Amino acid sequence: MGIIFVSQTGVGFLGNILLLLCYGFISCTGRGIKHMDLILHNLLVANCLVLLSRGIPQTMAALGLKYFMDDFGCKLVFYVHRVARGASLSATSLLSGFQAITISLSSPQWMELKVKALKSVRLSIILGWPLHLFVNSIVPMYITAMSKSNNLTEKFDLGFCSGIIIVRNISLLYSMMFSIIDILHLVLMIWASGCMLIILYRHKQKVLHIHSKSLSPKCSPESRATHSILILVSTFFCFYALSSFFTFYLSLFEKPSWWLVNSSALMGSSFPCVSPFVLISRDPRVSRLWCTRGTKINDFRK
After folding, report:
1. Is the four-CA dihedral 248, 252, 253, 257 of positive or negative sign?
2. Radius of gyration of the chain from Cα atoms?
3. Which residue, among 126, 117, 80, 119, has the nearest Cα to 96 in the 3D structure?
4. Can you give the chain as a three-state secondary structure string?
5. Which one, 119, 134, 146, 275, has the greatest CB density within 10 A?
6. Please, what sign has the CA dihedral across residues 84, 15, 268, 275?
7. Residue 162 and residue 147 in contact, taking contact as beta carbons nearer than 8 Å
8. 104/111 Cα distance (integer angstroms)
9. Chain centre distance of CA 171
10. In 10 A of CB 51, how many CB atoms?
11. Are 59 and 2 in contact (CB under 8 A)?
12. What is the rounded distance in angstroms from the CA atom of residue 263 to the CA atom of residue 250?
């Protein structure tokens, strides 16, 4: 498990940092930072925080170190993880919504909405982090360091920290509050993804007669965009569903098993690890950047 957590954290962190540097270089050498790039930067930063705040402590716990963190460290790690997870979810839903508005039909109603969306992107990104900082401010109250004593009747093991058992009614209230926020983001993501698929499908049907018969459908921009949306959305929902299942199942036990705690942590960090490589494989700007850099390096060597 230690090797698995080290591999996931290292590969995911390097992938996010690499893509963040690529987008930064593209923004510096292009026409400035675009609104889509701002959302992607926010997503990549949140992914890095998720991986570091959960991957490093979980690796140390898997290697047998259980009492290496004090109360402040436990509270900080779990708080950063919850905030970064919420910011990653917000950035993903915002990315889907912005894409749906960007590729929408050029009707007067949609054009007005596009203008408003462009103006509100920066504000949405800026307000997203304070929102999750405030909502998750109650998390540190119920996280504490591991105790070396065997009296754990009021605590449950989280791998490298402990969680304080609270009254079930209060626990349900907090769970509902967090679930409502997640559900709102998921509904926005589903709506935006459905709109994009419908728009791309209608556009493909309209321009189908002008495509050459020798042109492969896989080469068309419409098909590539549709596949990118399906891959990104399906990847997110698969890992989010697994993570939610393990988190809910974990909350049912006062003393959950070692396997259950590690599986929950592994699923929670899977999307931040995989998502940058999905974006790298589907974004032609990154491919062109690497091809250009590789050509210049070969010319320099010659």
Report:
1. negative
2. 22
3. 117
4. CHHHHHHHHHHHHHHHHHHHHHHHHHHHHCCCCCHHHHHHHHHHHHHHHHHHHHHHHHHHHHCCCCCCCCHHHHHHHHHHHHHHHHHHHHHHHHHHHHHHHHCCCCCHHHHHHHHHHHHHHHHHHHHHHHHHHHHHHHHHHHEEECCCCCCCCCEEECCCEEEECCCHHHHHHHHHHHHHHHHHHHHHHHHHHHHHHHHHHHHHHHCHHHCCCCCCHHHCHHHHHHHHHHHHHHHHHHHHHHHHHHHHHHCCCCCCCHHHHHHHHHHHCHHHHHHHHHHHHHCHHHHHHHHHHHHHHHHHHC
5. 275
6. positive
7. yes
8. 9
9. 25
10. 26
11. yes
12. 10
Where does residue 197 rank: exposed (0-12), middle (13-18), buried (19+ CB within 10 A)?
Answer: middle
For residue 40 the two structure tokens come to 């992607």
Number of H helices, E strands in the chain: 9, 3
pLDDT per position as a tens digit, 83-133: 999 899 888 888 888 877 777 755 566 667 677 777 777 788 888 889 889
pLDDT for 180-198, tens place per residue? 888 888 888 888 888 878 8
Residue 112, both tokens: 């007005």
DSSP-derived letter for residue 147 is P
DSSP 8-state class, residue 218: G
Query: Taking a C-beta distance cutoff of 8 angstroms, is the pair 25, 72 a contact?
Result: no
Residue in this structure with the two tokens 């209060």, named with its chain if needed: 170
The phi and psi torsions of 252 (rounded to 5 degrees) equal -80, -15
Instruction: Specify the residue for token string 């791309």.
Output: 200
Query: Residue 245: what residue type?
Result: F
Residue whose entry in the numeric block shows the structure tokens 């290496």: 68
Which residue is associated with the tokens 């889907």?
96
Helix ranges, 103-167 (H): 108-135
